[in-house]
Every structure is written in C-alpha cells, then in structure tokens.
Predict the 3D structure of the following.
Amino acid sequence: MRGAAPVTWAVCAVAVALTATACGGGSGSGAGGPDGVLSSSWGDPQNPLEPANTNEVQGGKVLDMIFRGLKKYDPRTGKAENALAERIDTTDSTHFTVTVKDGWTFSNGEQVTARSFVDAWNYGAHLKNNQKNAYFFEYIEGYDKVHPASGRPTADTLSGLAVTGPLTFTVKLSQRFSTWPDTLGYAAFAPLPRAFFDHHDAWLAKPVGNGPYEVENYTRGAQMSLRTWKGYPGGDKARNGGVDLRVYTDGNTAYTDLVSGNLDLVDDVPAAQLKNVRADLEGRYINTPAGILQSLSFPYYDRAWNTPGAVKVRTGLSMAINRGQITETIFHGTRTPATDWTSPVLGADGGYKAGLCGKACSYDPASAKKLIAEGGGIPGGRLTITYNTDTGSHKEWVDAVCNSINNALGNDRSCVGSPVGTFADFRNKIGRKKLTGPFRAGWQMDYPLIQNFLQPLYYSNGSANDGKWHNARFNELVNEANADTDTSTAIRKFQQAEKVVRDQMAGIPLWYQNGSAGYAARISHVELNPFSVPVYHEITVR
C-alpha cells in the first residue's frame, strides 16, 4: 500500500514527551531491539487509540496487540471464537446474557469485569464522545437516545445494557441480529479500565489494555514501542520480547531497510518491489488471500455526483478500467480483479458471489464512453482521484486507472491523480468533506461477515460511509438481513442489498487484495491473518 517514488529517507518528528529508539527512515541502529524485540513498518494512526475511535488499519494493528475482547478471530480461518467470553446466551437473537471469564486483568492490575465492557460501550456509543465507531453500538437498545441523528442526547447510557453481576451483563438489541456475537471481536467492543475514564489524558498518552503487549512509549512520526506483558493471562502469549513499530512515510524506504538488515518486517511489500522480492529476501515472502477490497468512493455530498445521470457516469468509469491488465502488470499476482463488493475469503457460504457486478465490472471502453456521455459527462470535465502516498503503492495504480480511463475516453486529461502526503491528512480531508471527486477506499474487513463489507460503507450514516451515500432500499434490506435468524436467508438478503449497490454503482470495486509481507532472517513463524495483519504474538526472534 505504498507509492513508488524514488527512495527518500523519512525524517523523525521532534519528540516532546517520549523518545523513540529509531526513525521511520531507518537510523542504521539495526533491525531489532533488546530481549528478542522485532521491528516492523508502520504508519501513524489518524486518532488517539481509543478502541471506539479507531477505524483505520494502522491504529487497528496496535489495538489488536494491546486488547482482547469477548471474541477473537482465528488467525488462520477468521472464525469467531470466545476470548474473554465464558459464554453468550440467547433464545431469541435479541436478548443476550454475557458471562465474562474470571481471572483477567488489565496490564495496570485492574480486574476485567462486566462493568469494564458496559462502561466502554456506553462511552463508545455516546454522541458527546465523538467516536468514529459509535455506529457499531447502533443495534443496542437506547442508541437513538445517546446518539440521536439530530439534536442533543436525552440519555447518558444505553438502556439495553445492564450489569447483573461482577462478571455478567445483559444486552437487549433493538431488533434481532443473529450474528451479533460474531461481531464482538472487533476492537470497538474492547473493555476499558477505570484509568481510561479517571485519567483520560494520561491513558491516551500511554494506552493500557488487557492484551499480550503493553505500550512502552510512542513518538508520533517516529516509533511506537510495545513490550510483552509478562502477566498476560491469555493462551495466546507473545513468543517475542516486543515489537517496535517504526513509522515510514515511503514504503520503498521501509523495503530498503528490510533488505539492508535495518528492519525485520514489512507487512505490505511495495508494488515496485514485487517482481524482485523473492530473490531479494531469499524466499522470506508471504502472499496470501486477505479480506481486503480496494475500491473508489465518491463524494455524494457534492450534488454533481448525486444525480440520476451520475449513476451512468460511475458505471461507465467502472467499465473504463482495465482491471486485468492493471493487476497483472503492477501487482504481480497479489491482486485479483473484483467482480463483487466483498471478498473471496468469505467463501460462498459467507456471502461472496463471484460475478455479481456483471458487465459493470468488465472492461468495455466503447460502452464506457457511451455511458459517460449519456450521463452528462464527468462532473467538472475532469476526474480527480485522491489518494495518500505514505502507505501503499497507490500512485502506480491510480496512474494506471487514470491512463485506462483516459484511453477509453480518447482524452489524456480526463483523469488525474491527486496525492496527499500522509494517511492521516488523507483521512482528515475525507472527514471534512472537502473532496470533489473519487478517492481510494481500501476496506479491510473488521470481522468475516458479508454484513461488514456492506453496512459500514453504504448504510446511511455508516461508520465508513465516507462519501455519505444514502439509499432507503439498501438500508431496508440490510435491516431485514440482520434480523433473520437463518444464516443462509440472511446472506441472500445481504446479496440483494449488494445488488442495489451495483445498480447505483455506489462505489467502484477494483480488486481483491492479497496480504503480502517480507521479513528478515532473524525472525520466524511469520504469518498474516485473514485481515492481512501480522500475527505478531506468534513471531519468534533468533
């Protein structure tokens, strides 16, 4: 996920309170740290690491290391399994009784109790706390009172949550949601210690969780150092001494550091290096399917993109993109042209339906040009695709997409890329609704359900509906699917909702992304989970 600019060394940010041991561009201090600590490439999170306020990959990596929730996802199959949940009982898929395992603590010594979850969820849901993942609590009764669509909240806590004992609490949903327990491995549902509430600023500076690692220090723009928490009570204890997450603003710099022995792990090999990576690293390279879809989103708050004619324009743009050629020439087997809006890792039983997009995702330059003209042409006369340059090989593919569109339209100025220097700045531009053209939208699943590929991105006011698309029929079908207690019927409902996305071309699916990683000879047992994130706790250091 990085651009292929010439190699430039990243510059360390000035540390105000904490000092990191390495710079994002590689300080020449070697790959690892003391006591079996490994180093890995990383990017600064957009926001402080509150679990309910982190909805991007870089921050999510840290939360997965320092927290454990009621559920966890098997690092190989993605299946939801109990973590802190002793059991979750229901007879109607609306009322749930949760029993928390005894003996768990946070790394500061506080006990993990039922209250740890209920307080965290109430905080995440409340409008005043401005949490990006508040949407995940929408199905708990009382959400509309603590997080109204307009106006001020009329309640402080979710009426559907009640602590019934030190290790038990009940949840009442506003409608049936048969697969709700399987969503509880997502970081937004993590428990929080009292220190989060009583000493909030101190907690933000140095987060305290209940996972196999604890944060030692963090200097924005340079490095976050995590160390193994020796008192961790879980069965998935870390097999190393810790991880130094080094900030890079250019993926090729990270790759150069890896090859030269100054970095242990790069968890997304730049596109420009894919043809050489196996030779450079003597086979220490991973390329495995992941629950990631790359697409283009549109700013529907801009009226020019929110017209009946714009549907034809978006569909025409999709047909103008030669996905097969781009994935073959740029990504060398690490991407596959998308034919739906989910991911093959779900399988047919999980909701993936190959070919659901139909002709709209097939390269047809003549039809593309015709549709775009019928729709009134590209708004403003030129398509500008916004992307970030610090994480991911986005420049290459954006340029290739624009070249494909320009060739289809017979105008080499119809489409141009618009780079933004950092992922955080890119996300901030999106959040401020300042874009007038499409922008890259890489979706990494939060949990392996078709619902997660559709609802957050396209449901009205969804947590990742950055373009603010709205369609009442889509919302209705999603609600019906969530309420259905029969999994196969629910999946068919979700696929009907997906066809609404297709018919409106709410977003243009580009390709399914494999997870790719390269690693140094001094580490072993390196794997990527179905979310394309390294299974850090299983890595060993020689």
Observations:
- The longest strand covers residues 285-297.
- Residues 313 and 377 are 7 Å apart (CA to CA).
- The mean pLDDT is 91.
- The chain is about 25% helix and 20% strand.
